[in-house]
Each structure stands twice: as C-alpha cells, then as structure tokens.
Amino acid sequence: MILANTADSGEELVADSHLLPAVAVGRKTGDLIRKYAQSNPNPTAKLVFGGTVLNVRPSPVVAAFSSRGPNMVTPQILKPDVIGPGVNILAAWSEAIGPTGLVKDTRKTKFNIVSGTSMSCPHISGLAALLKAAHPDWSPSAIKSALMTTAYTRDNTNSSLRDATDGSLSNPWVHGAGHVDPQKALSPGLVYDITTKQYISFLCSLGYTIDQVKTIVKRPNITCSKRFKDPGELNYPSFSVLFGDKRVVRYTRELTNVGPAQSIYKVAVDGPSSVGISVRPRTLVFRHIGEKKRYTVSFVAKRKRRGSTVRSEYGSIVWGNAQHQVKSPVTFSWTFL
C-alpha cells in the first residue's frame, strides 16, 4: 500500500504501523504517483526498506500536526511556548494490544513507534524533572522560563526552523520560543519567575467571577483586589503585543539572576520596521545570586494597519553576556479576530 498525504498533512511523514507492507509519502510525491498511475496503463511499484537514515537535513522541523497560535482564549499570552521531539518516537509499548491498536492485530511487541503532540509531553516533562533535580529551589515558572529562553530556532543547516506542512519557514506562532535545548536550560543565566499571587492577579484580569477564580486556585479568601490592567502584564518569558486601537503597548518584566554573582547583561532587540522597540534600562547588573531586576519595554506602532484580516509580525528581546543569551520571542498583531 502507498499512503499519500492530503494537502492538510503536507510533507509530514508519520511511521504508522500497518497490517500489510506499506510506505508513506508526502503530498507532492503522492501527486506524482497518482499522475503516473493514471497515465501509465500498467503502473508498477516496488517497496524497499532503506534502513535507518541518520543526519537528516533539515532537522528538526515543526510537525504538521503541532498545535499553532495565536492564543484564541488569551491573545496577550503567546502560545505555543516551546516545541520538542514528538514525531516517530520509539518507546515502550504494552503487549496487551497490537502495534496498530486494531482488535484484529494480535501481534505482540515491547516497543512501538508513535507520533503526536502528546509524545512531546513526556519529553518536556522529563526535562522539567531534570531541571528540578538540578535546581530544587526553582519554581515551575522558573523551569518553564529556562526551557523557553534557551530554546533554539535554527536547524542543522543553520536555517530558521521549517514547518513540515509545506517546508516554509516557521514563526513564533508555530514554534513558540523554539526547540528545547536541555543542556542550555540547565544554566539559563536569568529566569522570568511568577508567584502564585501574580497568577491570581492574572486570572482576575481575565473577567472571571470571584467564585470561578476560587474554583481554579482552590483558595477561599480570594478578593481580586489586585488585578492586571492588561493580561500581558504577567511576568511571562515571551511577549504577545496587540495594538488594536492603541499605538503604544508598554510592559514591565522582572528577571531573577540564577547565574553567577556580579553578572552584567545588555539588551538587544529585533523587530519589524513597522514597530519601534525601546527598553529601559538597557543594562542590568546583578550583584548577587537570586537578585531581581526589572525592565520596561515600549512597543510603538509606527503606522496603523488597515483591513479586517489578522496581520502579524515577529521580533525578539535578548538579554545577553559572554556566557548566556536569554531570549524572548515577540509577536505583533494589529487586528485580532
């Protein structure tokens, strides 16, 4: 059997288990095979196992089925956060069911190859456990920040990460902060930490009732006396800027030094020509481990976008020195539907 992708799946190849000899091909190859089969009165094909292929280029790529942004619930929070391994993962498999999952499949195997965004979950969870073991005093938010700010966005050909759907370049609404890098995440230099009180202020800013907030946080004494004017004020490691009717969006973030004492960081910004980005201060000096410093970033739309379609552009804010690069992705939207 030749299993050819439709346009929705693009060039993504998933190693499904089959009950008969089969091969999967992308949409482009599938179209060529169909054309050949229709034009040749006696079409033939031969399936040959090519062995294990190493050093695939480009790699990694963003899976076609990977969840995409923008965040439709809270657009001021950029989603996704990060990406990780999730395609064609070889892992332990229960012998209670065959590799295809079909009732008629009576084969038994201790391992199986499975794909899905859910396959990324145990990889990222394992990295979080690794960071927690290395840094027992880190909060979940600090761990998330370390994974995000150290993620990479360039593949093994030194190109920007690509979308497996059609081979096009991906963006922060596709890969978030990028692909996780365990080694760098162990030593991120700085982290964006978030306290429970800040999360509660964030929830209160979303328009939930007091009872709804109490249900979420499991605390009876919530009053929502403190709430953010803008949900984007949450001390998140990324930025999602919605201009709408505003020309200026301003956020203050707080960084915690988890690197050496006497660390000095300078900021570097990157963005589209349609947006002005200014950061104050431009240098942060951390004299102690655990010391916290704040900075304010102003985003100014140089011209107003017209039309009813969603328009987005991208940038980044990087605090760096010779040892660390603490990178935050930024998305800009003029109209959000």
Automatic annotation (TrEMBL):
Set out the biological process GO terms recorded for this chain's protein. Answer: proteolysis
The domain of life is: Eukaryota
List residues of the Peptidase S8/S53 domain. Answer: 53-157
Q: Which residues form the Subtilisin-like protease fibronectin type-III domain?
A: 233-331
Single annotated GO MF? serine-type endopeptidase activity
- Is Signal there in the keyword field? yes
- Give the record's keywords alphabetically: Hydrolase, Protease, Serine protease, Signal
UniProt lists the family membership as follows:
Belongs to the peptidase S8 family.
- The protein's name in its UniProt record: Subtilisin-like protease
Please name the source species: Gossypium harknessii
